[in-house]
Design goal:
Strands 1, 2, 3, 4, 5, 6, 7 and 8 form an 8-stranded mixed β-sheet that branches. By secondary structure, the chain is of the alpha+beta class. The chain has a single domain, classed as Roll (Nuclear Transport Factor 2, Chain: A), CATH 3.10.450.50. It has 4 helices and 8 strands, in the order αβααββαβββββ.
């Protein structure tokens, strides 16, 4: 319960923290690069790479799924998804990273096309990805929460 409360509290802090324009910010660039590594992990069917920057107490919420609590649970979810659909592939459409004035928190907002194979047919849909990062005590930027939400129903690509 404490871990969930901590993650929710962090989400509220990040949402309420004053932000500065992240354009050209080394922190924004670092967070965007970490997300790009995670996406490469997903597209490469590598659960370790996909969860490399997960905090141990990460909470991931996705529509129509139970929340994944913890890095190990998130990793297991990726492994299961990779088994179920080898055609799963995501492609970035756009992204922005907001950084707190204190430089210790960041919110990543991205839009992606998510492709998958369903009954032998290539399908696609657009998803929004929102994630909270914190600069942890060991100096690593880690994702502490994420929300994945489809903008539309899947349709033939």
């Amino acid at each position: 319960m404490f871990k969930q409360s901590y993650s929710v509290s962090m989400a509220l802090l990040v949402a309420c923290a004053p932000v500065h324009a992240a354009a050209g910010s080394p922190i924004a660039a670092k967070v965007a690069a970490e997300v790009a590594e995670m996406v490469a992990g997903i597209n490469g069917k590598n659960a370790d790479a996909a969860t490399k920057y997960d905090a141990p107490d990460i909470i991931v919420m996705e529509s129509f799924s139970r929340p994944a609590a913890g890095r190990d649970t998130d990793r297991s979810g990726y492994l299961e998804s990779f088994k179920q659909n080898q055609g799963w592939h995501i492609t970035k459409i756009d992204e922005i990273v907001d950084v707190s004035k204190g430089g210790d928190l960041a919110v990543y907002r991205g839009t992606y096309n998510e492709d998958a194979i369903s009954s032998g047919t290539l399908m696609t849909h657009r998803v929004d990805y929102l994630a909270g990062f914190a600069h942890d005590a060991d100096g690593v930027w880690r994702m502490h929460w994420a929300v994945i939400n489809p903008e539309e129903h899947s349709h033939k690509k």
